[in-house]
């Protein structure tokens, strides 16, 4: 197992009290596998990823429990310099906003080349040649010429390709992409996702794809983890989850997106808002918004129940998952 996150807890001290952003998240990613992490804004997707990458702001953030096993080693127990080495060479992250992640005053070829100079001890000349190869690899046309240009001279989609090239440079075993295409228009989104999926296959990387766009994940992910108020409420192979969700929140998400295969079906947004994380409702955190809620939901926190499937692990944190699954 490449990455095995176990019972991770993260909180933030805020003026309103302690915000419990991550409340016992567990997920696993194998080499060559894509896990999509899905959920509304504020559900803890990015904070979980930051804790895994070791880039959480501490303070105000604090990891209060759990393990992040990467190739069997608990990253939370490493010293900062060891951690930095893992982060540089073995795992990399792609962010939504490439412009603010790239250096505006350095040509992109030099930025890419810097990775090989620093981590691989290459000469400037060799590093530049590798940078051009990499730009070619992520299909930036006229790579040799464009390597001399600055980030602002690229379109959003092309900049995102440069981010992908940066992340790939050292051939990491794991990439975490946090909303990598959200800022792009729809056609470009699809191209960048296709590229990411192709490279993931070619390099046999593990990929964690954070998104709130269900449409994006259907084609590229193997498994989905759905987050709500800092917990995973459903975890399943993509096609099982699309076929029949075992959690009312997932059902709500599925019902809220237009689907080509369900033309003419009415669209529902999930009513209400996600809870504030300083005051997460007791029992099932989703109960104030859940159309299936009953008394027990207001008092008893549902564990992640195992949902029996013939060949793959599946879980739902709903007391009534069976009813939900049956539609
Ligand atoms: N630097 C911070 N200081 C205080 N609280 C924070 C900080 N970063 C995150 N949080 C808290 O953690 C919660 C979860 O944030 P997170 O960024 O993980 O959400 P997300 O699921 O990635 O949402 P989005 O889809 O908007 O990116 C936030 O709602 C906020 O309460
Ligand atoms: S446990 Fe109850 S409130 Fe929570 S999702 Fe299931 S039915 Fe809804
Ligand atoms: Mg986020």
TrEMBL record:
Instruction: List the molecular function annotations (GO) for this entry.
Output: ATP binding; ATP hydrolysis activity
GO CC annotation, single: plasma membrane
Respond yes or no to whether keyword ATP-binding is given for this record. Answer: yes
Question: What InterPro entries has UniProt attached to this entry?
Answer: AAA+_ATPase, ABC_Ni/Peptide_Import, ABC_transporter-like_ATP-bd, ABC_transporter-like_CS, Oligopep_ABC_C, P-loop_NTPase
Q: Boundaries of each ABC transporter domain copy? A: 5-254
| Major location (coarse) | membrane
Q: How does it sit in the membrane?
A: Peripheral membrane protein
**What keywords are assigned to this protein?**
ATP-binding, Cell membrane, Membrane, Nucleotide-binding, Transport
Q: Name one GO biological process term.
A: peptide transport
Quote the subcellular location field of this record. Cell membrane
Q: Name one Pfam family in it.
A: oligo_HPY
Keyword Transport listed: yes
Assigned protein family? Belongs to the ABC transporter superfamily.
Q: What is this protein called?
A: Oligopeptide transport system ATP-binding protein
- From which organism does this entry originate? Streptomyces griseomycini
